[in-house]
Amino acid sequence: MPLTVTLWSIVALLGAGALAIALARSVGASRVVYGLCFGLSLILFVAAVVPRSAVALTTSFPLGLPWIGVHFRLDVLSAFFLAIVNLGGAAASLYAIGYGAHEKHPSRILPFFPVFLAGMNLVLLADDAFAFLVAWEFMSLSSWALVMAHHHDAENRRAGFVYLLMASFGTLALLMAFGLLAGSVGGYSFADIREAAHAPPWRSGLVLALVLLGAGSKAGLVPLHIWLPLAHPAAPSHVSALMSGVMTKVAIYGFIRIVFDLLGPPEFWWCMPPLALGAITAMLGILSATIQSDLKKLLAYSTIENIGIIFVALGLALAFKSNGMALPAALAFTAALFHVFNHSLFKSLLFFGAGAVLNATGERDIERLGGLIHSMPRTAFFFLGACVAISALPPLNGFVSEWLVFQAVLLSPSLPQWSLKLLVPAVGVALALSAALCAGCFVRAFGIAFLGRARSIAAENARETDVWSLVAMSGLLALCLLAGLIPSYLIDTITPAAKVLVGGHVPTQGGIPWLSIVPIGESRSSYNGLLVFLFIVFSACLAAWIVHAFGSNVSRRGPAWDCGYVDPTPAAQYTGSSFAQPIRRTLGNVAFVARDHLDMPAPGDTRPARFGVEIHDRVWDGIYTPILRAVDFCADQLDRTHFLTIQGYLGLVFATLVALLLVIAIWP
Amino acid sequence: MALIFDLGAQTAQMILVLSLAPLLLGFTRKVKARLLRRRGPPVFQPYRDLLRLMRKDVVLADNASWLFRSAPYLIFAATWVAASLVPTFATGLMFSWSADLIVITALLGSARFFLALAGMDVGTSFGGIGSSRETMFASLAEPAMITIVFVVALIAGSTQLSEIAFHMLSHIELRVSYGLALIGLVIVAIAENGRIPVDNPATHLELTMVHEAMVLEYSGRHLAVIELAAALKLLLYVSLIACIFAPWGLAPHGPDLRAMGFGAVAYLAKLTIGGFLLALFEISTAKMRVFRVPDFLGAALMLGLLGTLLLFVSRSL
Predict the structure, then answer these.
(1) Is the peptide bond before A223 cis (omega within 30 degrees of 0)?
(2) What pLDDT score does A454 carry?
(3) Three-state helix/strand/coil letters over A154-194
(4) How far is the CA of A538 from the CAs of A487, A530, A535, B76, B77, in angstroms?
(5) What is the 3-state secondary structure (H, E, C) of B292-317?
(6) Which of helix, strand or coil describes residue A292?
(7) Looking at the DSSP assignment, which residues form a beta bridge with residue A72?
């Protein structure tokens, strides 16, 4: 029943896309389409979370390739991810009812938005390689069309091009991974692939590498992350929220599905690439975020960081699982999925906030914002809540998943392999560093954009955003708070998936008194978000009451003190780049070879002094520039073949034919 | 009956840390002054300062927002909760299981988050410089703290402070990683509390201050609450070091008034020693340049990492 409802709702989403084309010219089209998307996402969400037996539901249709058909399957893992996708989809649709009204060319977005939602849902339901890849490509192309919505801007066109390249590369890698998984005779349905598991090490290693390339390029794993900071600012904000908060999670799903489910029992070395790459991704992502001044670019880099954290947790789960340690594996896996859920909430919320600011001021550059807490108090409040959540501060939800990851790291000394004994502590430190940097990054983002004084006229004249957007943001913040205060329910929701995929589960949290969470044992660790929250609220109220009742309660307003300096211009405030300067100088000189240049004219020279910052993207310089150069070189060489004589062309055809025949003759 | 006793012990702990925090500050200042051959202000001067500030009117900058006005209470509450979760005179208090050492670290992180934001709210350059530097220090001090938590938790097999204290009491042993963690924790404590050589709590020289720059715009009761939170943070770190590395005298879980009284006396003795050592350390070093601080904190981070690595490796020997 839930599977039928789900599939029909997806068909309806596709229908909504068609409807959008039909309605393109009419006035209320965006409300109708986004309203439909909101309703359908809610239905899909309910269908995913409705309690049912742990047995997977399957169905198949005689579509697609004739000897395969299309298989769909709804199991505990896909249900969990369906809930995330559709929660994010519902929030984005609700937000877009208000936000989309400002769109100049709605017909460039409306048809693709529902199709994008449908594509993500289909990836999660697919039960054979063919359906999976088609749905994956559907998701990629519809999101590409959304990135290209504002294609008049050259920068957006470049973003779209890079995204398209990376997406096609990722799909190619996944295609080859499925080819290897199925083998030369195996079937392409996931059930057949599961049967045929126990590949030789070289093959499973190759599949792992290909999956890391394919799913990693979609999720934003370093060094395949380059498209995120380009594409997320280019897309409209509700689409960036979906791409960043939700689509990257679909990529995580792809990784989990293939590596934990289809690839068979893990070898211990499988965990090394996700652990190492995850740690590097987390560090590089958050460091890059800290020095960005484009708000949406900053959020995109922060997504990269969070993807790194999720991959680290998944790597730990693999390490434990391969050593037969079921409980720690379940803990790490639970932490990963918990963080997936959390990140989908607060990252969507942050992009909504960034969109509201963009609408109100026309600015994405935080150096030209400031003081928005006065003109957009509600947006500022919701954005602040999301900043607290993503900075892993108690009592909001980001802290819970971070805490669970740390608990998993603390269990890892019992891993027998020496390489892991050296790798895991380093990864733990990288996580701690990125968590601390994340807090600093969001102090900067919120402080520069929303606090202080307005740095431009646009920021000064900003207006609070519309009701729909505010409702969507408040809903997400409420969920962040709820997941932080009562994490036990969410952990119990993840438990069935952990049971299936890592063969163990953390103790049921629902029955523990006071709603605490005790993932391993009472004497080892426990956390009670609700109690901490109540404690803080109580102490803050008590302090405020005592101070006001027994001390003074008079407030006067006056000019800012600032040590007596008169400071008439908002330009004298700390800017985003000056705020980031200490971190750029201490950590950035390693990560980005960041250098400050001061060009001071000689005495008597009247030209102004100049201060510049030089930053290198090491990934781009080290990997992509050589690749681009190689591609250019090959293209140049091949260019000669464009000017052959007719004999030359015929010779080429003949040579190819001979070569192919030789291959067939030699092939065993 | 047991419930009332538990609740009473927990409340006593909350009141104890709150009432002792200014005293520790005053004591440290006094010792420092005496060591410098000055007479120094009376030990109870911080209480008088707080009371005076509390009675004064608040002068808010024209463009201060609601965040600026509510941040002091949030900062205070988070610090107070964190401080009352560290065992001082007894372990296993009623709510001690609601948060472990990682949570305490993160609660201090929350307090710092709001303090840094409050520094940027009015939009002055001093507030920005303070917040920016505090963020830089925190970006190294917090991971250093987490690695120290790793070390301690790996030795004790728990992240709960009560369990850790109990473990340290029952397994007295010398370990290399233990010493590394102690040095690291002291460095973190000095940096987090803005003491010399990282920051000078007595200075108002603009270019050197960090904490004072962030709270420059605060006055009256808001300033009092923030100062009290800063005092609580100092007390918290001294209690934390005492609880992990000198857990002697801590009363075990249970309604035993004599053990608790003994624990309280032992706690006072530990605070006295801690305050004295802090003063001694502060007068024997000079403040370092801001961009030397990352090296100082980086040392703590590396010590913590080294300790963790040693524990990971030695587990299999």
Answers:
(1) yes
(2) 92
(3) HHHHHHHHHHHHHHHHHHHHHHHHHHHHHCCCCCCEHHHHH
(4) 21, 12, 5, 11, 8
(5) HHHHHHHHHHHHHHHHHHHHHHHCCC
(6) coil
(7) A59, A126
At position B183, the amino acid (one-letter code) is I
Dist CA A311 CA A222 (whole Å): 11
A448 contacts B74? CB cut-off 8 A: no
Q: Do A240 and A296 form a contact (C-beta atoms < 8 A)?
A: yes
Residue A640 amino acid letter:
R
Q: Among residues A536, A16, A241, which one has the least CA distance to residue B82?
A: A536
Q: In this structure, what DSSP letter does residue B202 have? A: T
In terms of DSSP bridges, do strands A57-61 and A595-599 run parallel, antiparallel, or are they unpaired? unpaired
Beta bridge partners of A611: A598
User: CA-based diameter of chain B, in Å?
Assistant: 64
Place B197 in a pLDDT band, splitting at 50, 70 and 90.
confident
Q: Identity (one letter) of the amino acid at B67?
A: L
Q: Is B102 on the interface with A (CB under 8 A)?
A: yes
Burial degree of A606 (CB within 10 A; 0-12, 13-18, 19+): exposed
pLDDT at A265: 86
d(CA A166, CA A213): 10
Q: Are B41 and B30 in contact (CB under 8 A)?
A: yes
What are residue A189's phi and psi, to 5 degrees? -80, 150
List the structure tokens of A244.
């960043």
Taking CB atoms and an 8 Å cutoff, what residues of chain A touch B206?
563
CA-based nearest residue to A462, from A567, A540, A377: A377
ipTM: 0.95
Q: Which residues of A fall within a CB distance of 8 Å from B133?
A: 582
Instruction: Give the relative orientation of helices B125-156 and B101-121 as an angle to the nearest 10 degrees.
Output: 180
Task: Pick the residue of B15, B80, B98, B134 with the most A CBs within 10 A to test the interface with A by mutation.
Answer: B98
Q: Please tell me the predicted confidence (pLDDT) of residue A27.
A: 78
CB contact at 8 A, A388 and A345: no
Q: How far apart are CA A313 and CA A367, in angstroms?
A: 35
- Residues found in chain A: 668
Break chain B into its structural domains and give their ranges: 2-314
CA A568 to chain centre: 41
pTM more than 0.90: yes
Distance CA A200, CA A179 (A): 15
Is A399–B77 a contact, with Cβ atoms under 8 angstroms apart?
A: no
- Nearest residue, CB atoms, B124 vs list A384, A562, A580: A562
Would you kindly state where each structural domain of chain A is located, as residue ranges?
346-545, 618-666
- How far is Cα B208 from Cα B198, in angstroms, rounded to an integer? 9
pLDDT digits 0-9 by tens, A403-459: 999 999 999 888 888 889 889 999 999 999 999 999 999 999 999 999 999 999 999
Q: What are phi and psi of A326, to 5 degrees?
A: -70, -45
**Nearest-angstrom CA–CA distance, A311 and A278:** 5
Residue entry with tokens 């913590």:
B304
Chain B residues close to A547, C-beta within 8 Å: 54, 221, 224-225
Whether pLDDT at B317 is above 60: no
Using an 8 Å Cβ cutoff, are B105 and B192 in contact? no
Cα(first)–Cα(last) distance of chain A, in Å?
Answer: 48
Whether B221 and chain A come into contact, CB under 8 Å, resolves to yes
At residue A103's C-alpha, the angle toward residues A101 and A104, to 5°, is 125
The tokens for A263 are 């690839």
Strands A610-614 and A595-599: antiparallel
B63 lies within 8 A of chain A by CB: yes
How far, in Å, CA of A392 to CA of B258, rounded? 40
Report d(CA B152, CA B159) in Å as an integer: 8
